[in-house]
What we know:
Layout: E1 7-11, H1 18-25, E2 31-33, E3 37-38, E4 53-54, H2 57-65, E5 69-75, E6 78-83, H3 84-92, E7 96-100, H4 103-112, E8 117-122, H5 126-136, H6 141-155, E9 163-166, H7 170-185, H8 192-200
Parallel strand pairs: 1-7, 1-8, 2-7, 3-4, 8-9
Antiparallel strand pairs: 3-6, 5-6
Helix pairs in contact: 1-7
Amino acid sequence: xxxxxxxxxxxxxxxxGKGTVVSELIKNKSYALSTSITTRQARExxxxxxxxxxxxxxxxxxxxxxxxxLEYAEFCGNYYGTPMFYVEEQLQQGKNVILEIEVQGAxxxxxxxxxxxxxxxxxxxxxxxxxxxxNRATETLEKINMRMKxxxxxxxxxxxxxxxxxxxxxxxxxxxxxxxxxSEKMSAQRHIDLINTFLEGVE
Length: 203
């Protein structure tokens, strides 16, 4: 059997509860959370290789040139990306690697890594999404409206994803993702070598 782990990409609008769901998932030892590489300076308490891989801008650009990043983007003057070396290392160890990124980045990864599983996490409805953003009480009305506009843009790309998980109750959403991963691990397409072995014995 193919014991290689799966790359699980989780996206969804701000307020969908991605961080909470991912925090619950990685309590399971079969999962590993992808560690991003960044050119920004480490903050107090952050550890290289744990919170991020901290690298200089030139080194980051060389990694881009060598296609060593699954995806990358610039934000507030710093670069952020997903290093292929870390993802592959974890996958080969049998870990299911979780990548929590926005939609455009997710689609970039899918282009490069066809076996990735794309999961879109969403609240039950758009009204619930707005309520969650408002209940945070951390952003202005203008910022909330911007996030809602962005959410509608992201939702239009749901058909590019493999699965949709409704996050009404965190435990149920986590259970749904676990079931998706287990089902995908038994996919015939992921065990072609085993199938070919069986066929060798068939006259």
